[in-house]
């Protein structure tokens, strides 16, 4: 058992060192994902290392993924993952046998009422946000700076992730909590005044912290960032870097955020992420370019833009489709989950030699009303 534990730790260290790198060619990146796929399938469907949920799933499915899934293309043997499983099943069913006995975190994701969807985790969030930190270097978010997080804390992975980001960059993190489920519920009930009052309550607290503590970096949502800028000049307050994610960011809104909210003086890092995937970084943009393209943290997670009517097919470059996520870490495996977002399929770039997702927005938002709230 001790030898196996040593091997597990060495495996984790090796894959934690695999960061998104432009040194890979497109072919090398594909080979890396194929290798990752085979290794992780063997891990999650082996009785020695896998979790009860996926081992039971394989028995009921009547086929062995370790035999059929040899490359990432073979993921099509799986149907789209039903995330209602994360609401119905005890999170303990997702503990890999190799992790038995290790204390774990339970994180929540999605929903407005009722039983939340949950996933477990150990070190994945640290790996994701360490990679994010390394991508931006010491000047984009000043080394040693303190952070303020204005967003959902509580049972969410994001709270621990942002604090880890601040800590590994040599700073501390302050928190202003909010409950996005309550905001969405208020909006759904037509209680717009109450929703606005709650938002003002959150912004009041953020302004107080910025004025009385040495804060140079912020994580928040674009809408809360906009509200914050109406109360103070963030640049004059000493803010040097902003990391934002959550609500839809159209090119017009990105331009507004950079030029009006941040006054063209503050570094801005828009991201796309969630509890199941981790963090997709946006590629660097040329001056005057405001359309965002995000790239998944391959090989730990892979995003495809698929035909909404047939998720086995990807759409052409430049076309909108539904976002499909596959997550492959030692801690957690989710194949072909259809996100509640749609995006434009974008090609690889100098920074990321794999497909990206551009101008992300809620799925079918062009044909139906979508409540996003403040997050």
Give a topology summary.
Layout: H1 2-16, H2 26-44, H3 52-61, H4 65-68, H5 85-88, E1 105-109, E2 117-121, H6 124-140, E3 147-151, H7 157-168, E4 173-177, H8 180-188, H9 192-212, E5 217-220, H10 222-229, E6 241-245, H11 251-261, E7 267-274, E8 278-282, E9 293-295, E10 301-307, E11 310-314, E12 320-328, E13 333-346, E14 356-362
Parallel strand pairs: 3-4, 3-5, 5-6, 6-7
Antiparallel strand pairs: 1-2, 7-8, 8-9, 9-14, 10-11, 10-12, 12-13, 13-14
Helix pairs in contact: 6-7, 8-9
What does this protein structure show overall?
The chain is α/β, with parallel strands linked by helices and 375 residues long. It has a domain at 124-362: Rossmann fold (3-Layer(aba) Sandwich), CATH 3.40.50. The chain contains eleven helices and 14 strands. A twelve-stranded mixed sheet has the order 4-3-5-6-7-8-9-14-13-12-10-11, sandwiched between helices. A two-stranded antiparallel sheet has the order 1-2. A hairpin with a 7-residue loop joins β1 and β2. α8 packs antiparallel against α9. It is globular and about 60 Å long. Residues 1-21 and 370-375 have low confidence and may be disordered.
